[in-house]
Design a protein that fits this description.
The protein is mainly α. It has one domain. It has 6 helices and 2 strands; from the N terminus they run H-E-E-H-H-H-H-H. Strands 1-2 form a two-stranded antiparallel ribbon. A hairpin with a 6-residue loop joins strand 1 and strand 2.
Length: 134
């Protein structure tokens, strides 16, 4: 994958993580929630919908050459959040606090930073805030 595709993928992953885990601020607090706990309120399918979106995010992240251990951790985060998210009300509260997608984004960004530290010829893409029209 070339640099432009990496930047587009990283930007897409960041948007998905933000949308699912921190898109909405709670007035009067610093706490933020995303669509994940809200969609989790839909009986019988809300958690599966967000798990599918999270799986797509993991698929995009695998293009960055993540190690099996990192991918497993990402999948584990989504499985944990999905499984516990199915518990009525308590699961939705857990979803709001656990934020599996932001955790997975952090795993990816740490992987990218580590790869760049090992290869100084690569320019840092983790901190780039380039907006690319898709």
């Amino acid at each position: 994958m070339d640099r432009i595709q990496q930047l587009k993928s990283l930007q897409k992953i960041r948007k998905i993580a933000s949308l699912l885990d921190s898109a909405i601020g709670i007035p009067g607090t610093k706490f933020r929630i995303g669509l994940d706990p809200i969609l989790g309120l839909i009986p019988g399918g809300g958690d599966l919908i967000t798990a599918g979106i999270s799986a797509y995010m993991i698929y995009l992240a695998t293009r960055f050459g993540l190690e099996r251990k990192e991918i497993s951790k990402m999948i584990g985060n989504v499985i944990l959040e999905t499984a516990l998210g199915t518990v009525p009300l308590a699961g939705d509260i857990f979803d709001a606090y656990f934020k599996a997608n932001l955790r997975n984004l952090e795993i990816l960004e740490n992987h990218i930073a580590k790869a760049e530290a090992q290869n100084p010829k690569l320019k840092a893409i983790v901190d780039e805030k380039i907006v690319i029209n898709s």
